[in-house]
Amino acid sequence: MTAPDGRIVSTGLAAEHAAALISGLESEIAKVIVGQHTLIRRLLTGLFAAIPFATARSETRAGCGHILLEGVPGVAKTLTATTLAHAISARFQRIQLTPDLLPADILGTRIYDAKSATFRIEQGPIFTNILLADEINRATPKTQSALLEAMQERQVTLADTTFRLDDPFWVLATQNPVEQEGVYALPEAQLDRFSMMLRVDYPSAAEEVAMLHARMTEQHIEPQLSPSDVTRLRAFVRDAVYVDDKIMEYIVRLGRATRAPGEVGRGDLRELLMLGMSPRSYQHVLALARVTAFLHGRTYVLPEDIKEIYCDASRHRVARTVRAQAENVDADHILHELLAAVPIP
């Protein structure tokens, strides 16, 4: 296949084969998850996005894009995560976060062995491929912060020992938007580590009827990929999909518009935005756009790919002012206004 600049990025057979593997994975998940097509597509986008990060040893690597799922109970958030984990033969751990949960319950701890008179490390559930942090906003800030190092650097430090997490390591977190009591707001530092925040809505009436029919028959999920296949496909998409410099400039303009709306002629939005997107978020948008383009059958990114995932990648990274909250102005509304104001390359 040839990019718009004439560069050969991959063979057609390799690209077609990679696309077929991802399509097969999507179809297998859809056997269990009726409806929620956008949710499945976005989860696969995060799974195959090559998000760059640096470790304490100055190693530059890439990992999956962590995802925060927000939706009322019963819309298949947890089922989708477990189904996807089975479809890629990945090790899966689920943590039910509660106010009394401690960081050691997630990371692990040192245990004294009386026989050998030494301490040994007991690893926690975070040592897995896919970690589902259910109702993450029910945990205290101290427990939430235990996930920061693992999500950013893909490693865990226990006592004086640092353990490197397996690749892929992917965090899926859920939160209930209607809960008001007994919840703690996620700090900006943690929100910024999620590549996307997906709002999971109710399915349509036809999909709910189809869901009832589907539950009458058992659906068996056949593994489509292995964890090593996921890392290979992730690297392939990163290297095969071409991104023009004008697309990168477009990403930066969109990000800077959330910090200085006046630069794009929307100074009125300044009173609604307290915090804009960070430079780190540009890397996430770029990686997500590459996968979005590939899922659309292209090996080059268009502005439409940026616009498709922009709100999902940005709504949790912008903080609204008190005025915006009082006037009930949603973050998505502000982002759509900025998308319309920033010129398309």
For the sheet with most strands, the description reads:
5 strands, parallel
- SSE string, helix = H, strand = E? HHEEEHEHEEEHHEEEHEHHHEHHEHH
The geometry reads as globular
Overall pLDDT: 87
Number of domains: 2
Order the strands across the largest sheet as they lie in space: 4-7-10-3-11
Report the CATH topology name of the largest domain: Rossmann fold
3D structure, described in words:
- By secondary structure, the protein is of the alpha/beta class.
- It has two domains: 7-240, Rossmann fold (3-Layer(aba) Sandwich); 241-345, Orthogonal Bundle (Helicase, Ruva Protein, domain 3).
- Helix content is 42%, strand content 17%.
- The protein has helices at 12-30, 37-47, 77-87, 103-107, 141-144, 148-153, 188-191, 205-214, 227-240, 245-259, 279-295, 303-314, 322-326, 331-341; strands spanning 51-54, 60-63, 67-70, 92-96, 108-113, 118-123, 130-134, 155-158, 161-164, 170-175, 196-199, 273-275, 319-320.
- α10 (245-259) packs across α11 (279-295) and α11 crosses α12.
- The radius of gyration is 21 Å and the shape is globular.
- The protein starts with 11 loop residues before the first helix and ends with a helix.
- Residues 1-13 have low confidence and may be disordered.
